[in-house]
Amino acid sequence: MSVISKSLTVFAAGATAAALMASAPAIAQDTETIVLGAALSITGKYATAGIHTQKGYDLAVKRVNEMGGIMIGGKKFMIAVKYYDDESTPARGAQLAERLIVQDGIKLMLGPYSSGLTKAIAPITEKHNIPMVEGNGASRSLFTQGYKNLFAVLSTSEQYLTEAIALAVKQAIKEGRDPKTLKVALAMENDPFSQDVRLGLVEDIKKFGLNLIIDDKLPPDLSDMSATLNKVRALKPDILLVSGHSKGAALVTRQMAEMRVKVPMLAITHCESAKVTDTKKFGNNAEGTLCAAQWAPSMAYEGEWFGTAAEYTATFEAEYGYVPPYQAAESTAAVLVFVDAIRRAQSADPDKVRAALVATDLNTFYGDIRFSSVGNNVAKPMILRQIQNGKYVPVAPSQFVDGEMIFPRPGS
Question: Strand runs (DSSP E) across 284-404, as ranges?
């Protein structure tokens, strides 16, 4: 299958271990289709966020096609995505990326979920000179390899939780306390994404002269944090920062309550994908938790295809029955970047699309998107939200949000 093909089906929805399943409505026979490829975690440890990613892609495809697709040389083209399930395994992801490109003839790739999977697939797309736009591989090490075909719409991973350090310092000053007396605990999964989160935090801890008293690596098969939490109970840090994808977010929320571990500030990644505000699963244990996010429905962003961030949220919720997590939003944005580049290039040829991607300057519901010379987005900041009365309230950075942090965490 070439990147532009006669097509009767939009390839979408879930895939089994290696098989493709089609479930979307047929495209009219008098149109041609530009087919993007994606290996996604439909099963395995990243399945929750992988499915959010897929829904983000699918919603973008639906909206662009509803709005008439892409006009190239006076001819209308629809878009579609062909998926395979990478089973949350990097080796499988690389194998499937090769299959999409070599066997299926895909010439434009969307990214997988997670930095680990993106690291596995990026060398494949680079080898074949295939542009890949991704929204879920934030590891900064992805952008130190000299890749010419990798473009990421999201902020890089070292920025994910650093705003929490700035908040802790600000709070200490507010209380008349020397910030250099602050004690910090880190619990980071031993995977590329979380270790990059850690590096950004360590840099800021050193910059502000804080005391790093716990620096634990969590295993990839994370199922118990009691050893780390026992240290937290004994050493009493002022702030605990955790990155372990959705599994780690769920685990720390549950085990801190079970073990009655108290800390004035708790900041974690992947709150939404772990659904930590679900009171049936977690009660009110997530109250006061600070959650890193690439995006929030309340942000004042706006673009062509979905309107404002709030309007995108309403569209997503109507389609899928829940408020979109940022993993879905950034995935939708990745598709829109491709659409914009194809439209400006007036071609789906990978060389012409790549040149257009380099020149991207796009306003979207997800935020502004401009790529640096190494392919990361330099136009959008990370945000930090606090769970207050079961709702996500943006509290940082202060120049972009109106919310105020509640300190200390309830019950601490």
Answer: 290-293, 302-303, 307-308, 362-364, 367-369, 383-388, 391-396
